[in-house]
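Hello forum,

I keep getting stuck at the same step: I have a sequence, I want structure tokens, and every attempt I make locally crashes halfway through. Rather than fight my setup again tonight, could one of you with a working pipeline run this one for me? It's a single chain of 90 residues.
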Amino acid sequence: MCLGIPGQILEIVDDANSIAKVKVSGVKRNVSVALVRPEGIGPGDWVLIHVGFAMSKIDENEARETMETLHTMGDVFTDELKMLHQSHIE
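Reply #2:
Ran it on my machine without issues. Output:
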């Protein structure tokens, strides 16, 4: 199962290809932000990430609420975070 997990954009690392470094639950990784670029995004913004793509721009409150809800999912969320940590890109 793949979940949409909130992440905060740290920087745009490849402007031409719409790739940003995003911090997701303590893990930094590169994700495609092409789908949310038209909304105007930049460092500090929050996005909902699914399989390496930022699917939507969200605000900080929504990010916090989503993380709280995901934590209630128990093993499903824990397993997803383990996979995310194993794919750690810095």
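Residues 5-86 form a domain with the SH3 type barrels. fold (CATH 2.30.30.140). If your local run keeps crashing, start a new thread with the error log.
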